[in-house]
């Protein structure tokens, strides 16, 4: 370990179970010397195993529905009290589509479900940054990261309305990143991760074929949740101070591929 986050304070959204990308980020942040608050939706806290992670990393858990400005405000205020000052890093690792859950086809969207999924998966990122910005809760040279997927740029038919949510999420990172950079010297980025076997990931129809295809297409193979955590830690560290408003692909090279030899072999 490199003490990359020694003395840094953070808030980590979205650790549900050991598979969660946010779970791995919390473990790695702890190893790198950070202190942080863990948060998730109240229902996830009832279902999940977050207390075990809190114990392991010496963290407190605060329930917050990321679509509620009231909850986020209380979360940020309490986090600053617990951690004793401003926040250096924030991970937004939240995604959910009701249309996907209910197996409703993209061409037949239920728009109440679309709106709910958009609020949770995309607009919540704006709400979190709104509170952090207006409360001046972030330290100078702080870093905010949200997780995204390449369906924001290219079509993956079964990714459904999450593709649109991710496009919106990535746009918020750019738009808010301008104001956060200009006014508070805080950077805002999205990390576009390979398909990863988690609760959210496995909910996508045909996930097994999908992850296998990405593995065969990527010269370095798919990036794991732990590798995603490592990259996220580097984005929270002082080694990446001038990286902002970017969508950063962390996918073993997948996003620049046309076709690979192992995939071609299947057609020859
Ligand atoms: P996960 O299922 O472990 O995490 C999703 C989290 O969102 C859960 O902890 C859940 O409780 C939380 N959440 C849902 N509604 C919420 C609400 N209203 N308020 C607060 N939190 C809420 O799955 P995973 O894969 O770790 O997902 C984390 C992020 O990574 C998501 O943004 C996902 O889209 C993204 N991602 C995942 C990939 C994958 O293949 N698993 C690939 C690329 C990006």
TrEMBL record:
NAD(+) binds at residues 14, 20-21, 94, 166. The active site is at 149 (proton acceptor), 159 (proton acceptor). The keyword Flavoprotein does not apply. Pfam families: adh_short_C2. GO terms for molecular function: enoyl-[acyl-carrier-protein] reductase (NADH) activity. This is Enoyl-[acyl-carrier-protein] reductase [NADH]. GO terms for biological process: fatty acid biosynthetic process. It comes from Polaribacter reichenbachii.
